[in-house]
Design a protein that fits this description.
The complex is a heterotrimer.
Chain A: H1 2-26, H2 42-49, H3 51-84, H4 88-99, H5 102-120, H6 126-149, H7 154-162, H8 167-195, H9 199-204, H10 212-219, H11 226-256
Helix pairs in contact in A: 1-11, 2-11, 3-6, 3-8, 3-10, 4-6, 6-8, 7-8
Chain B: H1 2-31, E1 34-35, E2 41-42, H2 48-53, H3 56-89, H4 93-101, H5 108-119, H6 124-131, H7 145-168, H8 173-181, H9 186-197, H10 199-214, H11 218-222, H12 231-239, H13 245-270
Antiparallel strand pairs in B: 1-2
Helix pairs in contact in B: 1-13, 3-7, 3-10, 7-10, 8-9, 12-13
Chain C: H1 3-22, E1 24-30, H2 38-46, E2 49-55, H3 58-65, E3 74-75, H4 79-87, H5 107-110, E4 122-134, E5 155-157, H6 161-171, H7 181-194, E6 198-201, H8 206-212, E7 217-221, H9 222-231, E8 235-238, E9 244-253, H10 260-270, H11 273-283, E10 286-287, H12 290-295, H13 298-301, H14 310-313, E11 316-318, H15 324-339
Helix pairs in contact in C: 6-7, 7-15, 8-9
The chains are: A mainly alpha, B mainly alpha, C alpha/beta.
Amino acid sequence: MNRYLSLYASAAYAFLYLPLAVLAVFSFNASRFAIWQGFTWHWYVEVFRDERLIEATIHSVEIAICATIFSTVIGTLAAYAIWKRRARWLTNSLYLSLVTPEIVTGVSLLAFFQWIFRFLHVQLGMHTVILAHISFSIAYAVIVILARLRTFDPALEEAALDLGANEWQVFWRVTAPNLLPAIGAAALLCFTVSFDDYVTTSLVAGVNSETLPMVIYSLARRGVSPAVNALSAMITIGIGTLIVAAEGLQQRGARSRP
Amino acid sequence: MSRLRVAFLSPAAIVTIALFAIPIGIICAYSLLSRGAYGGVILPWTIESYRRVFDPLYAEILWRSFVLAAISTSLCLILGFPLALYIARSKRRTLLLNLVMLPFWTSFLIRTYAWMFLLRDTGLINTILQSLHLIRQPLPLLFNDGAVVLGLVYGYLPFMVLPLYATLEKLDPALLDAARDLGATPWVATWKIIVPLSRSGMLAGSLLVFIPCLGAYLTPDLLGGGKTVMIGNLVQNQFTTARDWPFGSAVSLLLMALVLIILLRMLSRQSEQLL
Amino acid sequence: MNRRVFLLAVSGAAAGCMTEHARRLNVYNWSDYVARDTIPKFEREFGAHIRYATYESAEEMLAKAMTGNSGWDVVFPSNSYVQPMREMDLLAPLDHKRLANLKNLGKRFQSPPWDPELGWSTPYMYGSTGIVYSKQAPQPEGWRDLWVNKYQGRMTMLDDPAEVFAACLKRLGDSVNATAPPELKSAEALAIRQKPLVRAYINAEVRDQLIAGDVLAAQSWSITAQQAIDQSGRLAFVYPAEGFPLYCDTAAILRESRHQELAHEFLNYLLRPEVAAAIAREMRTATANEAARHLLPAKDSENTTLYPTEAILARGEWFEAMPPAAQRLRDRLWTQIKSA
């Protein structure tokens, strides 16, 4: 069975990476269009000459990191509290926030921010984008972590309490370590959702807060430049290498431990 | 417990109230106002938008969206489960999990364009099939509902894999060993033991896939060739080309209410325990 | 640090901010609508700092401008948005004394129907909608050719209600700005009849498929068509015989802007012949600036896809803002076309 499973997994990864392979190939295409016309490094040079693309990438990373940290922490705490005792109104609101069409999230937040800003003399910008991203990624974090908690045996907590730990210690020492894989998965999900959001972001973004998806969508009318493909290929390969290297280090660390 | 619980809940509660409940309240108000000539809303108050929602045309769109979202969700579950299982059993879990997410750090639009290239008449798939003489005429792969489902499955597969992984990772391998000792084949053991135990992950994953699929608008436009309307397109259009914010608000509020009712009924019937 | 020094430092810093602030301009434009050096050159010459960002739908820009606190100074509404934005009091009046370069505009754009006095907007680039087709397929003459099965289902229409309705209305002999329900309904019936022949409703993305030969004929904006033609000699563009829609993007200053003077300087700068010519050359669009057009190489300025002749232009019709009731009906009909 394991053999079938790994065969299947390879196929699944191939499916996930097929479009990426395509755009990696086209990042070397001499033409702007999806018709092969010869090899060039031109677009890779172009990425580094395009300040707007670089600035937007930096914005996107900053926003995604902030949003991920906040929503994962808030989401973990909330999921734990909900698991302890149901909070129907909160879980329902979180589901509802998932159901809300993106554009409605965007329009409603835009209206809300404008209403608040009348009193505060602030304008749309990075902060509004980060707030918006936190608001829609919390639900993802809560759902993933809650799913894990449902498989967690409360007896472990009771045992710790019996041994004299207080509630905070129980959470921090017993439950949270057990949740780590789910917290990691949730953070990964939040980062991804934030990094690729376009509709909501474009509505709540202001001066000086253009994100990568915003640049890419705004290019669509005239044809997305292969420089974007080149950038995507570099991000994928760069982060891919980091992931593999981190894994290698971890494996080595694990082996060297007694 | 109560003080810790309050402390744990309040950040989420504050964010939810400030950044979700109040803004949605504004949308409720929008849905009851009249449309501004060029977008936005103006007085007087009216229930006109709600009256217009009950139209067989929109019911049909809603139904089609549900069907497409349901098909995509089932496919994600079928395709995602073995993958999550494989990752959960692997020694390199973090690596494999990260590799599932990595493609999604490339803009959705760019990946959709790549699919358009793969699927079109002169695209990679048709070219390969033709050069192998398997087909004579190019297959119509792009601009139909099949392409929409493909795009949705591709776009939301990780949303299924992550929660599944989060539950599967927890399962004790000893359970399987025990089953094997009792004479079950690995397939039977998986079906009888792992599948039931990962139900909470399946449910969470299905939610995370089904709901965004329902609101998708770019996939039907680009891979479906704009020849079908999903509920996401309808809402999107109201806020853009149609400039009818009250109607767009009313449609999305009804959609939200409908999905919530279905969810609650489904959950209460299934098992309160799961979510 | 004693209190006075502190106050001094703070006020100094504030003054520093202020002076820097005064030379700051936030420009919100359509994507790919300036040349690579347009902005840097302006910054150097006027000692200003420009924050430049782009949108891809007029509604996105409008939604933000309508808040009255968007932070943008200069925006680029399409011609049909100028009147609505004026009515909503979003635009600042233009001071012609500071726009000496207005004289460079073409005659047609000195007094355009949407803003005859040019009191609120300055025409920037214009374009139209027609049919791009492969020379290997039968040549279309007008919209009516998109209703017969010449292209074996390898034909696309734009994914935009205004455009599809414009084509249908023109085919029926009506105005692209028709608002009467019977006219809109017969246009809808026509579009539904056409749907089996339509491969997709798709906008600029059709370009790749035209070049690759998947699509033989497409309703298309002249700019998109020109990009495809540049890539493939097999393609050509035709202005439909029945008439076609025209649109013009304009530059305007938001009323909320606190940098009116610099904004005027920016508008005037964009109207300079050499600046406008550089943009038109690099972006392959049609400039409304006649003096700039004379600076372009002949292959650009005499390109009939971008710059239709006067005889052809006479068949064109400017898009206008649609009244709410008609727009609501049109959206309902559009949804019906898409669901048919």
